[in-house]
Specification:
2 strands; 529 residues; 71% helix
């Protein structure tokens, strides 16, 4: 394709990406619907009449915008392999805004609508953090090593993207493992199914057939029931998103609680989006960082003003959708289908037809691909830094499991006693400190390690000092934002910065070991390139 030729909006590979990405979005929509209905006890009239239509419009705007950006890039470069950035509801924030903001306020006031309003205010504040941060992000991307950006992304991928789907698969192995094999054979093994039917669609169909076959034979494998299917039709209808400005300002009465998480998680979104733009660049598609990040803020703000309490984000997974043939059309088509599903109440029906475990393998595939990319697209010598970037995310994931488990038992770590937990090998306080602000912690730790490996001690000292500042403000290694939130950790980072500065001035060191080439060890396997 030449620069003068119009890019193709749809290619055969877009079918694969459409079903893969579409099911990813569907899983998240089904999850947030369950959180709203069964955790927050939100009335169905608000869930299906207000929140989902606003969410659908926001997702449609986001996916259409990123399809347009991909079209422009393809036209500008004359390339036919440009893949649009995936985007959708930020999954970590979905749980944070539900359990940290909306649920406590709903329980305190006895009114789930008040929790919804607090969630709207939370997104309102975060949107402006994203829009302002979009102008700073290109500088951060320029000075931060690729291993740090991709390494912390791999940490999110392994802990918060891959683990839950993997566990769901092995809880219901007949569906989960079978569907996983179907996906791996196509997307890694190159197997083509009958008449080119996309692997994601084949996996969902097979998983649904197994689940419903069990149901019709008197079993319950996969959790599908005719009663749930019948009840889902009650939520059919047509609902347009309506302005919710009054609800946003009602939520400002909870501003003190909201600011504790809105600002640090806005920064989290900023760094995560930055990582994902870098990931797309490594895969060959270099999108304008400022436009990407400010777009997330703008569409989140619009969605919030119409009643959606969930932030929009550029998703992990661009290389995965690109590798399966996704280009421009898959993103736009997903947005159109999503808004139809959300405005007509079809999400309720889908949640009763498709077992979640049939979709889980797609998320695990994306997690595998992103985790691998961190190692494949950076120098071999930086591998230790990538491992270091994973550790804060593993700590955050471990703490989340412990908190949720104790919460289900009606208690918490403080009530059980940190000493008692320590006696059985659960170093809760260590998980709490290391996992606080895990996205930023992963970037800082990996950047320091990369620059040490490269014998660039001044740059390493600068990132260590930045880690000290961020820790002092509670943006990493802390539970909330404020002055002096993690003073001992901050002091530790400053001490490291001094040591590194001393090494830069006085130490005698050897040169970095030259990178080994493929020729030294033979041809690398295709999956490692």
């Amino acid at each position: 394709m030449t620069a003068e030729t119009k890019p193709k909006i749809w290619t055969p590979g877009d079918w694969n990406a459409f079903f893969g990405f579409g099911t990813n979005i569907l899983v998240n929509l089904l999850t947030l619907t369950a959180l709203l209905r069964f955790v927050l006890k939100m009335p169905d009239a608000i869930v299906f009449g207000r929140i989902l239509p606003a969410t659908g419009l926001m997702l449609c705007m986001s996916t259409l915008y990123y399809a347009w950006l991909a079209y422009r890039l393809a036209k500008k470069t004359g390339r036919s392999d440009v893949c649009a950035l995936p985007s959708g509801i930020s999954v970590p924030h979905m749980f944070v805004v539900t359990f940290v903001i909306m649920l406590p306020i709903a329980l305190k006031t006895g009114d789930p609508v008040k929790g919804w309003e607090a969630g709207l205010t939370w997104v309102f504040i975060q949107s402006f953090v994203l829009m302002i941060g979009g102008f700073v992000a290109p500088i951060v991307r320029k000075i931060t090593p690729r291993a740090a950006l991709l390494g912390t992304l791999a940490g999110v991928s392994i802990s918060f993207i891959s683990m839950r789907p993997a566990l769901e698969m092995f809880q219901t192995p007949l569906i989960g493992i079978t569907c996983f094999a179907i996906i791996l054979l196509s997307w890694f093994g190159g197997v083509r199914y009958y008449k080119g039917i996309p692997a994601g669609l084949v996996a969902i169909a097979v998983g649904s057939l197994i689940a419903w076959g069990s149901t019709l034979c008197g079993g319950s494998y996969g959790g599908m029931t005719l009663v749930k299917l019948h009840d889902s039709f009650a939520n059919f209808g047509f609902s347009l998103p309506m302005p919710a400005i009054g609800h946003i300002f009602s939520g400002f009465q909870f501003l003190g609680v909201i600011l504790v998480t809105a600002i640090p998680f806005g920064i989290y979104d900023l760094v995560e989006a930055l990582d994902n733009v870098e990931s797309a660049s490594v895969a060959g598609d270099d999108f304008p960082t400022t436009r990407v990040l400010t777009a997330d803020g703008v569409v989140s703000l619009i969605g919030c003003c119409l009643g959606n309490p969930f932030i929009n984000a550029v998703y992990i997974g661009h290389p995965g959708w690109k590798s399966m043939g996704g280009r421009i059309g898959y993103s736009a088509a997903t947005g159109v289908v999503v808004i139809i599903f959300c405005t007509f109440g079809i999400i309720s029906l889908m949640s009763s037809l498709i077992p979640i475990v049939a979709i889980s393998p797609i998320l695990l595939y994306i997690g595998m691909l992103i985790g691998a990319q961190a190692f494949q697209e950076t120098p071999r010598s930086h591998a230790p830094a990538i491992i270091l970037a994973l550790t804060p995310h593993l700590a955050a994931w471990g703490k989340l499991l412990i908190d949720n488990s104790l919460g289900a038992a009606g208690t918490n770590a403080a009530a059980v006693g940190l000493d008692k937990l320590g006696q059985v090998g659960v170093l809760y306080h260590g998980l709490e400190v290391m996992g606080g602000g895990s996205i930023l912690a992963g970037v800082i730790l990996a950047a320091v390690a990369v620059f040490i490996i490269e014998r660039k001690f001044v740059q390493a000292a600068s990132f260590a000092a930045a880690g000290g500042v961020l820790s002092f403000l509670g943006l990493m290694h802390g539970e909330k934002i404020g002055i002096g939130e993690s003073p001992v950790v901050a002091l530790s980072y400053f001490a490291v910065a001094l040591i590194l500065g001393g090494c830069a001035k006085f130490a005698t060191v050897s040169e970095p070991v030259a990178e080994e080439t493929e020729e030294m060890h033979g041809e690398l396997p295709a999956a490692a390139k």
